[in-house]
Amino acid sequence: MEFDLVLKNGTVVTAGDVFDADIGISNGVVKQIGFDLGAGREEIDVAGHYLLPGAVDAHTHVDAEFQGVQSREDFYTGTVAAACGGVTTILDYAIPAPGQTPLETVETWKAKAEPKAIIDYGFHVAVFQPNDTAIQQVPDVIAEGHPSFKIFMMGSFEHNLDGFMDMMAAIGRHGGMINVHCEDACCLSYLARQFNKSGKFGADYFADSRPRIAEGIAAMRAIGLAQVAEVPAYLVHLSCEESLESLNRARGKGHTVYGETRPCYLHFSKDRMQEKDGVLFAGWPPLREADQMDILWQALESGVLQTIATDHDGWSREQKRMFNKVDEILAGMAGLETMVPLLYSQGVLKKKLNINRLVQVTATNPARLFGLYPRKGTIAIGSDADIVAFDPSVKKTIRAEEMHSAADWDPFEGWQVTGWPRLTISRGEIIVRDGEVLGQPGRGKLLRRKRFAETDARM
Question: How much is the pTM?
């Protein structure tokens, strides 16, 4: 048979294997893996390259608004940045406008993404008001293919615990999962009031206003509440040992709970907040002490943490500098384009994790957890041909002006990395070749995901 595309002489990497092979692709899926496959309409020699499954970033905000400020990013610039960095699927957080129902929120996010995305995408639906309408819509949202819901343990959470418990229980009954932002509202509110009264403003005080204990308390509580509500829980962007201890203990007891961390926690300490323009590095939760970086690397390598995701936000420098109070500073930074190269350069090459583990935490595990496996997250016959030809020999200096996010700065400005994608392939189509973006806006597809209860995600 003739293939649409044949990748020849590559080194295929999956969650469990590393082997040399050719890959034959037709109609957007992997048809054969082996040697002497036959001709392709296009054949590319990828000798010396790793063939990685396209990464699945399970936590992005590519079209975000906070405190009335609209980020510079949209679904075109955000997915272009993702594709250039080897990410072929994103799961974005659909944030409701005041009064919007979950179903209305999904429609809003569809309208944002459909004309612009160049890679495939799905949504987690955030819940701020767990009223009767929101709870009643849970089965319909899940049936549409969006089985994960975001809960922030801040803001209205403490004032509507009964509603949130009812919401979590409904999500569990219908086979979904909750994604939980773990920071304790009481701690944050108290400290923000104290800091603001004392005139302790700006980045210098930001990390201390959201301490590790606030994350630890919230993580322990989130796990307990999820057990009571009988719903699987995924704890997002964990940053410190206090939350990891609760996660590890619960998993050791067999509870269905999972953990995610972010690149910034692996690569920066809170000392970065004390430097010039430290406010650029503000996030929820904040950067931590330097010793927490090693703890997180160990947790990622050992399986205490299951995924890494960017929590990508495309704010400009000017936007990040707009607010000075510790409870108003804009959180988040760009990271879609650099996540995979940095994890290889700073992780694999420095022997903090092996390349199979890189594939697990960036692709296979998020695909399994969020109802996309084996369509996404692996290289296997019948899977979507989402493949990255990754050149491990390339040396590159990260420069914001060469990145593709709409943000006008990059947190890793000036960092030198070894290893960068040469080709990014989405459903058999080359969408980035040697840095040139070929994918057209709107080619990305909305993904209908399986319910958590239908997956093989136990890990």
Answer: 0.98
